[in-house]
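Could you join me in thinking about how sequence relates to backbone shape in a protein? We need material for that, and I hope you will provide a protein of your own picking. Once you have written the record down, we can walk along the chain together:

…
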Amino acid sequence: MRTTLSFLSALMVFPFLVCPANAQTPVSKREYKSLQEAYEQRETATWLDLSRKGMTALPDSLFELVSLHYLDLSRNQLTSIPPHIKKLTKLKYLVLSHNQLKTLPAEFNGLLLLQSLYLDHNPNLEINQILQVLTDLPALKMLSLAGDNISVVPQSIAKIKQLETIDFSDNLISALPDQLPELKRLKVLYINNDAYFNLEQNIRLIAQIKSLKELHVENDGLTQVPANIGELKQIEYLFMVGNKIKALPPEIGQMKHLRFLDLSENPLPPLLYDERVLDPKVIIRLSKGN
């Protein structure tokens, strides 16, 4: 399912691609899509895309690419990640989406520089074991658990203290864990394509996440914006694309920090804007064309 990625989200998803002016330039900027080609430059290769290769297991030669920053292993048939993953100590971005993974090896906690991890669409993922391993990753800022058949988010997610972006889209989640506000750095939260999610009942908890700036509740079957939406005073970017919303409650005007509201693909009347409800400075998107 499509997920809207805003500028703020992009910075969270690709933090290592936004470098200060005095940062060192990687030895190799080439994007390799062949393990053989990358292996020939194994001391300097930093970017490798092995998605859609039909792999059921990872070759030992992969773990000799010790300079890798980015590794995409998505859309294969992987059922496990070998302990050798710990050799890739420079990894910052790892994509394991659309595989058949259940667990991660304990050695995964050796990826001390890992900032972004995609584990989405692994429907048999043992979420409790996964979170236990990820707790030991000190740099992890972005985590995608979309499409992992999750109905209950374990409380232990709050132990991954550095998280700034979490994607819970395409799951069966009706309620967020009470411990989520313990993530003091959380800025972006996705809960898209989840007909079970009850926004009204979760707003008070979301409001306690004081660092949260961007909230996505897209394609969730919402027929109305709950009146308690005004409690989300810290939110700056609100995405409610693809719902069934026909009107906005006046309480939305209580969102004093709101800067951008995306209501695309909702059955709203064309003349929605009312400065008595929203600050005139708020940017409202009513269709993908504007």
